[in-house]
Design a protein that fits this description.
Number of helices: 6
Helix content: over 70%
Radius of gyration: 23 Å
Mean pLDDT: 86
Low-confidence stretches: none
Distance between the termini: 43 Å
Structural class: mainly alpha
Number of domains: 2
Order of helices and strands: HHHHEEHH
Strand content: under 5%
């Protein structure tokens, strides 16, 4: 049993590292942040200084290593938009996120349980087939990122 738990913990660490690497690479390879964060009239010297201040002039493996060390220490950097530490910005919005999540869960339960009971009582009916189609299409929209579905 202990071997199983240790195996799962090691797998979890690898998954977290893999996801962090993918997200890090997508963010770093999506373009030069100096063009997004500095005004259009910024000079090339301003852009070079900006990259040096953020460490974006270093190799990607160095940037990723520094990112992991800072993340392990609880330092998630500074929000470039709000100009303050990122963790308090996220934690500030956490109550609203939890409230929205709980509300969505409650609506889902209130709709899904009665719909499931009705479908179970009326197998292969038009209602059952329409409900299955709606569940399938809703799951497709969610997994493909179609928020408007």
């Amino acid at each position: 049993m202990q071997g199983f738990i240790i195996s799962r913990l090691l797998q979890s660490v690898l998954v977290v590292l893999g996801v962090s690497l993918v997200v890090f690479m997508i963010l770093r390879l999506s373009g030069d942040p100096s063009y997004l964060m500095l005004p259009p009239e910024a000079t090339e010297a301003d852009r070079i200084r900006f990259r040096q201040d953020l460490g974006l002039d270093q190799p990607l493996y160095t940037q990723y290593g520094r990112f992991l060390v800072q993340m392990a220490q609880g330092d998630f950097g500074r929000s470039l938009y709000y100009k303050q530490p990122a963790l308090p910005v996220v934690l500030d919005r956490l109550p609203a996120t939890i409230q929205l999540t709980v509300a969505a869960l409650l609506v889902t339960i209130v709709v899904a349980i009665p719909a499931g009971i009705i479908c179970a009582l009326n197998r292969n009916s038009a209602y059952d087939n329409l409900t299955m189609l709606e569940c399938w299409s809703a799951s497709r929209c969610r997994s493909s990122g179609w928020v408007s579905c």
